[in-house]
Specification:
Strand content: over 45%
CATH architecture of the largest domain: 6 Propeller
CATH class of the largest domain: Mainly Beta
Largest sheet: 4 strands, antiparallel
Shape: globular
Radius of gyration: 20 Å
Number of helices: 0
Structural class: mainly beta
Oligomer: single chain
CATH superfamily of the largest domain: TolB, C-terminal domain
């Protein structure tokens, strides 16, 4: 795995040299950020982060629904064959039956992945809806990992919690990633929520009943049930990256800025269901207001977001790669 590596000096308060192997590179990923989605009834699509270059990445999926990503793989729910599919981010090494389910596990739908596990929701109308879990290698399946409050379709995970929409209860549920502290009404007042996603500041969800995207702070406060309005058909998929929130609107992938402005209703024309986004990660050095990278140039703290570029280095805005960046 590549890393944003460099020797960075904290200028204010103490002259301290720290080696920073920041894990912001991703192996086997496309050269640029990409958007992935479950298309129609049979394949996984991919496009560049600007919406261009849409292509069929994986053929012969079996009624794919939810889509999730990690640094190496794209995962999807094959609702038609009761299985989780997996492929590398470039579309190679396809395994349509990576995890298979017994016929009693009705309606696999949403999917999420973290550093240790794959999670998926089992939608069964008003009753019997659960969240399941498996290890990243597909072993250790726990079918009834977390019960839901009826009608869980989407699913999201961050470093601490799982989130899911309770369609019929009109709420967003939350639990810790080990399955504890289950709160079925973590965010109440949603209008037939279908999909959910999370970033470092907010939880987002689609409100099918009110044709809107909702948003709240990570602690459940600051609820905005109509954060983005005017959605034609909201929607079974939602995703977020460092600049935008994406959702499936009447089959197309729509996009808006993180503050809810700049809505593009047909950002990627498609017949999509689930959607996921692979962002180009950035490394921000949280030490002091001034830093010196080992090319001898001091950069103002506000300018030092060291973005991964082409997978092989970093550069503060307006500057070339520092010598020694690898």
């Amino acid at each position: 795995m590549r890393a944003c590596a460099g020797v960075v000096r904290w200028i204010r308060d103490v002259a301290l040299f720290v080696a920073l192997p920041l894990a912001c590179g991703v192996s086997a990923a496309p050269a640029e950020a990409s958007i992935y989605w479950a298309q129609g009834g049979s394949f996984i699509g991919r496009a560049a982060s600007d919406g261009s270059g849409a292509l069929t990445l994986v053929m012969d999926a079996q009624t794919p629904r939810g889509v999730a990503l990690d640094a190496t793989y794209v995962y999807w729910v094959n609702a038609g064959s009761l299985a989780i599919g997996r492929a590398k981010l470039d579309g190679s090494a396809v395994d349509e039956q990576f995890i298979t389910f017994p016929s009693s596990m009705f309606g696999p739908f949403g999917i999420a992945v973290d550093a240790a596990h794959i999670f998926w929701s089992n939608f069964n109308g008003n009753v019997g809806s659960t969240i399941s879990r498996a290890d990243l290698d597909g072993s250790g399946v726990v079918a009834d990992f977390i019960p839901t409050d009826g009608g869980a379709e989407g699913l999201a995970v961050d470093g601490a919690h799982l989130y899911w929409p309770n369609l019929h209860a009109g709420s967003i549920g939350r639990a810790t990633v080990d399955g504890g502290s289950v709160d079925q009404s973590f965010i109440p007042g949603a209008s037939s929520p279908l999909a959910v996603t999370v970033d470092g500041a907010h939880v987002y969800w689609t409100n099918f009943g009110s044709h809107a995207v909702g948003r709240a702070n990570l602690d459940g406060s600051g609820v905005e049930q109509t954060f983005i309005t005017g959605i034609a058909d909201a929607s079974f998929g939602i995703a977020v990256d460092a600049g935008h929130v994406y959702w499936v609107d009447n089959g197309n992938i729509a996009r808006a800025n993180l503050d809810g402005t700049g809505v593009e209703e047909s950002f990627v024309p498609a017949s999509a269901f689930g959607v996921a986004v692979q962002a180009v990660e950035s490394c921000k050095i949280a030490f002091g207001p001034y830093v010196e990278v080992d090319d001898g140039v001091e950069y103002d703290w506000d300018d030092v977001t060291l973005a991964k570029a082409a997978g092989d280095g970093f550069a503060p805005p307006g500057h070339g790669y520092p010598s020694g960046a690898t």
